[in-house]
Amino acid sequence: MTDLLTTPAERADDGRPAVPTFSVISGQQVQQALKGRESELVALVEATYRLHGAGESVNPPSYFLRFPDRPSSRIIALPASVGGSVAVDGLKWISSFPDNVRSGLPRASAVLILNDPRTGYPFACLESSIISATRTAASAALAADRLSRGRTRPTRVGFFGTGLIARYIHTFLAGTGWEFDAIGVHDLSADSAEGFRGYLRQSGAAGQVTVHDSAEDLIRASDLVVFATVAGTPHVTDPAWFGHNPLVLHVSLRDLAPEVLLDAANYVDDVDHCLKADTSPHLVEQLTGDRGFLNGTLYDVLLGRAAPPTDRPVIFSPFGLGVLDLAVGKYVYDEVSRAGSLRLIDDFFHDLRRYG
C-alpha cells in the first residue's frame, strides 16, 4: 500500500493556505496505475474494510437518480469519507444505462471526485469506471479467499453475466493465486458469452472453458459462482440448484430469490447499505420481518467473529461502499503524482479573495 502523500492544499511559507490545485486523471492513467497490482489492491481493500468496520469512515446511503421515461437506467451518488492512512473525502457519480450495450458502449460510466479533508476543496477528478470495477473485483477476490477458508477451496468457477465486472473479477482471482480446473460461462446474450470465452483464452486462463446454455447447468457445475448481471429482480429461484453448497459472490445483488438466501449462510459488506433498494437481502428482510438470516459482515469474517459453515451454500452480497472507491482513487492519485504525470487545470479555482 502506498504511503499518504500530501494533498494539494499545502501551506505557503508564511503559513497561509496555498492556492488549491485541481487535476484530471484519465482512464488510461488510472489503468496504468492499477494494472498488475491485484494483490496490493486486495490488501488495500481489506485495510479499508477494517477502517470502515472500526468506525474510521463516513459512508452515508447512496442516492439513486432514476428516470420515469428510462426505468432501466440510473445514476448513483456515493459520498464517503475515509480516515487512517487514506485520509480523503469524496464522491463517486456512476451511471448504469444498460441500453448502451446495444450500441457498443459500456453499460456503466463514472467519475470520482477527491476532496482534501483539511479544506474541503476538490483536488482531483478521475475517470472511475475502472476504479469502480477494480474495487468491486478486489472486494470479490478478498471475500472468495476469506469465505473459503475452512471449506474445500473451489476449483470450478462459474460466471453468470460476462461484462466488464466479470472480466475484472476473473483478473483479480487469477492475479491473487486462484487456479481453476474448469471455468463456466453463462449469459443471456450468446455473443457476450462467446466474447467472454475469447477473453479467457486470450488471458491464458487454465482449465476447460464451457459456455452453459442454462443458469441451472452453470450453477450445478460450479463450486464458486459469480453473479455479475444487470438484473433488476430475482431470476434464480430454486434452492436445489445450490445443493452442492457452493460459494456465491452475489455481486449484482438482485439475482437470487429470497428462498435461495434463506437456505444459505449470508454475508454482506455493510448491513444497512445492503438491506435497501430491493436487493435480494432486502427482499428477505421484507419477507421475514427481521435480519436474522444474516450470518455477519465481511469485517466479522476478517476479525474471526464469523466462520462460514461447510454444510450450506455461502453467499456474499456486497452493496459496494464508497469508501472503497475513495481508497482506490487516492491510490491512483498518489501513483500518478509520484510519476510526475498529474494534469493540472490552471486557474480552476477563481476569485479566492474574500472581498475581491
UniProtKB/TrEMBL annotation:
Pfam families: OCD_Mu_crystall (PF02423)
GO terms (BP aspect): siderophore biosynthetic process
InterPro entries, per the entry: NAD(P)-bd_dom_sf, ODC_Mu_crystall, ODC_N, SbnB
A GO term, aspect molecular function: oxidoreductase activity, acting on the CH-NH2 group of donors, NAD or NADP as acceptor
GO cellular component, one term: cytoplasm
Top-level taxonomic group: Bacteria
Gene3D superfamilies: NAD(P)-binding Rossmann-like Domain (3.40.50.720), ornithine cyclodeaminase, domain 1 (3.30.1780.10)
NCBIfam families membership: dehyd_SbnB_fam
The protein, known as: 2,3-diaminopropionate biosynthesis protein SbnB
Lineage: Bacteria, Bacillati, Actinomycetota, Actinomycetes, Kitasatosporales
